[in-house]
Amino acid sequence: MPTFIESVTQFKENTSEALTGSKEGNLKELAACITFLSELMRTDNRLRGPRPDMRELLQSSDASVLFPKVVSDILIRPTEPLMVGQTLLARTIQADNVRSLQIPALGAMRAFDVPENAQYREQTPAFVDHQTEVKVGKVGLVVRITDEVIEDSMWDVVGLMLEQAGYALARFKEEKIFTAFTTYGHAVFDNDGVTPAGWTTGKAFDQTRNFSVTFDDMIDLMAALNAHGHVPTDLIVHPMAWAIFAKDPVIRNIAYHQGQMGATIWTQAPTFNQQANLPWAVNYQVTPFVPYTQSETLSTGPASGLGACDVTDIYAIDRNNALVILQRDQVGTEDFREPLRDVQAMKVRERYGVGVLNGGRSVAVLKNARITQNWAPHQTVLSVTPS
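Predicted structure:
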């Protein structure tokens, strides 16, 4: 097994030999060179020993082949926080030769019992009026690396900057996904609209409407999705919207565990689980990429006099039919033909389009929920005066 220094010494020779042929041994050498460069750019300080000269490697003729591959691998390293939109909620379609795609909304098909010696009944998908057009666009940014980093061969600094560039691309894709939900989803509630029937039913302490969210509003949100023929799979909220679930008296009651009166109250502390007892085993997804505005004053008549408040959107979706990502090019570098110059101003990009399916019927949206406590009573008490 060669030592670290021997690997550095043989790096250029191995790379040149690997690129001159397609024999199995040469391909293994090429893979070893890519692995070696990737290890140099690790940000966990795992690789010990002297670093090879960055400028010398960048000026080699083989760098234009090796570096784009290494950079692409670094850009797609595991990201955090979890990008639920692109990893859990969307279907990704790889499209190599198209820039746009029209997807029709499909009606439901049915299956039937087939008696002995009987014919199968034919069913044709019912194409409805809604068409979803997904257009591919380019997304990217420039990563600038100083001459000092190159002169001092700070490989881990380059790796850190490339990781952050990968995070930036992933975050932007998440924002596009949830913006598409808000724009094209079915708006069940909109507290910034002019129709009172579309306002949430939360109330202030004096029992006037304050446009907060109640448990009944959440049920109506999911029921609207069900009315369009979709079963909700996910309830998606911003982290700051956690206050809605923690303060609402009904939601808090069904979400607290082991806090009931009895012997366990003295032996076990209560826990809070927002996902407990949600209908249809709906997943409770929290992501910071849901639209969220601080100190927003709504423009509707009653809401305009309430002053500024943090405002967010809430979604109930059927993840199996909600979103499609038309991916043309994966995350990578662009125009890496002059390695030394491009490293100082490296372009990273990907090409894709985002579309909401079924005319938005598989996404129910509660727009402009005010993050404030709901004081609606558990039940209305009717006072009757005997005659």
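Summary: The CA atoms of residues 102 and 133 lie 4 Å apart.
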